Amino acid sequence: MKETFLVKHAVGGRSFIDTGKHPLPYTWQQDGDQWIFTVQIEKNETAELLKWKDELNVFIFQEFENEPTRKLWFYVLQGPVRYEEESKQLVIVAQSKIEYIPDLFSTQL
After folding, report:
1. What's the pTM?
2. 63: part of which helix (H) or strand (E)?
3. Residue burial 2-41, b: 16+ Cβ < 10 Å; e: rest
4. What is the DSSP string of 23-39?
């Protein structure tokens, strides 16, 4: 499985992080009713993102060899978004998740 991690301002807005274009080490895990994303990134690369920290969407695209792509959409409602200087990590906490497979949506009426 290939996985791409994106952080965007709003749904159709500016992309701040896109590991499909610029690979970065990241992890994500569920913790109760929220999801925690940790990204290894230099502080100077987070300045614009942190300005919009209350309006972020996080996406995980999971591409499988013999299955349709699965998209997971996370929204940062009031979760903390912070940069930890000591570990050089951006931490994003999201509270909302929608999972979908775009191939299952039809445009036929």
Report:
1. 0.89
2. strand 56-63
3. eebbbbbbeeeeeebbebeeeeeebebeeeeebbebbbeb
4. ---EEEEEETTEEEEEE
Domains of the chain and CATH, by start = 2-102 (2.30.110)
Nearest to 75 by CA among 10, 17, 3: 10
The phi and psi torsions of 44 (rounded to 5 degrees) equal -65, -15
What distance in Å separates the CA atoms of residue 81 and residue 78, rounded to the nearest whole number?
Answer: 9
For residue range 68-80, what is the model confidence (pLDDT) as tens digits?
A: 999 999 999 888 9
The arithmetic mean of pLDDT across residues 25-35, rounded, is 96
Q: What is the CA radius of gyration of the chain?
A: 14
